[in-house]
Amino acid sequence: MDRSAIIIGGGSSSRFGEDKGVLKLDNKPLLNHVVDAVKGIVSEVIVVTSSKERANLYAKMVSFNVRFVIDICESRGPLVGALTGFEAAQGKYSLLLPFDVPFVSIDVVSLLFELCIGKSAVIPRWPNNQIEPLYAVYHTKQALEAAKKALANNELDMRAMISKMQGVRYISTLVIEQLDPDLRSFFNINTPLDLKKALTMIKLRKH
Above 80 in pLDDT, residue 42? Predict the structure, then answer.
């Protein structure tokens, strides 16, 4: 097994006001948009969530064989969720994604996997040097060790993990734009307004 996908789905959705995982976009649960996008190019899909109850709820929605793992320290941020996923993943390389990005590009994800061979991570980076650590591919074992080191130092930011990894490759969003012209891949849904925008984007694509 070479490739895993880890979907971080443990957030409280506080800005949205309800559980975004079950939220429907174009008559399809938000989580399913992400699962369905990646299931064809990975050997396993792992969803990290915050409780057994939420895992059971999500399991009723997804059509693909998804494994759920519980992030017991969800309130400490995405690094703990990532670590939980890396511990569970069996693939040599793991794609990390949030569960609220409905426009995951297979072309972009495939490129990230290809570029990660021989590297510890491939992480998109914007021209202003902002990075996308939650839309990236990692060498699973190296990322797990780096995440453990960061948490041992009580560093909870994804960048703390990345700083402890050797051989990280950054890919410019200007390159990704060649595969995903509008960079829809990075559009995430945090508010009801974002949901409306996403629906408009889907309708435009259908016409």
Answer: yes
Query: What ranges in the chain are assigned the alpha helix state H?
Result: 30-38, 52-59, 78-88, 106-116, 140-152, 158-163, 173-176, 192-206
Residues 6+ apart with CB under 8 A from 189: 16, 20, 23, 25, 30, 100, 101, 102, 195, 198
Beta partners for 49? Answer: 70
Stretch 154-179: mean pLDDT, rounded? 96
With a CB cutoff of 8 Å and minimum separation 6, the contacts of 58 are 9, 21, 22, 31, 47, 49, 66, 68
| The model's pTM | 0.92
Structural domains of the chain, ranges and CATH numbers in brackets: 3-206 (3.90.550.10)
DSSP state of 184: G
Say if residue 63's pLDDT is above 80. Answer: no
14-21: average pLDDT: 65
Give CA–CA dist 141/145, Å, rounded.
6
Q: Where are the alpha helices (DSSP H) in 117-191?
A: 140-152, 158-163, 173-176
Nearest in space to 7 (alpha carbons), one of 72, 73, 101: 101
